[in-house]
C-alpha cells in the first residue's frame, strides 16, 4: 500500500488583489450585518488547502470583523456617506510551512439612493439555477439580467442569513454593485 501526500507548494490566491465596493450609508446595528465576502482558493489538496481569513490592516478601531472560515466581512457600526475604509485581508492555508496571501477591500460609503418608482424589467420572469456538491467555490452558477435602466440599480440578496453568506455578487461584472447588464451569482 502506498500513500501519497500533497506537498504544501501553493499559496492561497484571491480572485482579485483589490476588491472595490460602494455601499449605502447605514446606522449602527444590534447584530452584525455582512458587508462583503472576499474569496481565495488554494490549489493544494487536503488540509493544505483549508483556508482561514483574518483582517491584518485597516481595522485599528475594531469596526470590522471577518468570519475565519467563510471570509464574510461584517460590522454593526454606523457608516456615514462620504467615508472610506481600506482593509487588508489575509488568507492562510493549513499547511506546514503555512503559506498566505493578502488582498485589499476598499469600501466607499455613499448616500442611500432614493427608491425609484420605475419598475425593474428582468429578461426572464423567474430564474432557476442548479448547484451540485462537486461545483468549485466561486464558480458562476447563473446570470440574472434586466433591461437597461436610466437609474443605478442596487441589488440585495434576500433570504435567511446562511443564504446571504453563501452567495455574493461578482465585483467585476457588477461594477461596484451597480449594473444594468446583470448579476453573476457565485457560491
From TrEMBL:
The keyword Cytoplasm does not apply. Keywords: Acyltransferase, Calcium, Membrane, Transferase, Transmembrane, Transmembrane helix. SMART domains: CA. Gene3D superfamilies: Cadherins. Residues 15-121 form the Cadherin domain. GO terms for molecular function: acyltransferase activity. It is found in: Membrane. SUPFAM superfamilies: Cadherin-like. Pfam families: Cadherin. Its main location: membrane. This is Bahd acyltransferase. It comes from Goodea atripinnis.
Amino acid at each position: 500500500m502506498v500513500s501519497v501526500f500533497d506537498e504544501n507548494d501553493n499559496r492561497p490566491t484571491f480572485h482579485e488583489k483589490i476588491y472595490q465596493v460602494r455601499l449605502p450609508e447605514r446606522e449602527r446595528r444590534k447584530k452584525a450585518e455582512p458587508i462583503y465576502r472576499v474569496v481565495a482558493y488554494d490549489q493544494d489538496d487536503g488540509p493544505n488547502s483549508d483556508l482561514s481569513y483574518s483582517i491584518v490592516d485597516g481595522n485599528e478601531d475594531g469596526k470590522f470583523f471577518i468570519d475565519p472560515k467563510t471570509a464574510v466581512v461584517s460590522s454593526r457600526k454606523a457608516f456615514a456617506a462620504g467615508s472610506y475604509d481600506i482593509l487588508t485581508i489575509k488568507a492562510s492555508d493549513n499547511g506546514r510551512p503555512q503559506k498566505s496571501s493578502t488582498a485589499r477591500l476598499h469600501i466607499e460609503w455613499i448616500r442611500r439612493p432614493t427608491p425609484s418608482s420605475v419598475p425593474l424589467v428582468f429578461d426572464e420572469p423567474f430564474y432557476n439555477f442548479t448547484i451540485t456538491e462537486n461545483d468549485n467555490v466561486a464558480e458562476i452558477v447563473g446570470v440574472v439580467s434586466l433591461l437597461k435602466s436610466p437609474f443605478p440599480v442596487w441589488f440585495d440578496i434576500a433570504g435567511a442569513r446562511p443564504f446571504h453568506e453563501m452567495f455574493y455578487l461578482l465585483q467585476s461584472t457588477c461594477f461596484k454593485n451597480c449594473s444594468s447588464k446583470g448579476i453573476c451569482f457565485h457560491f
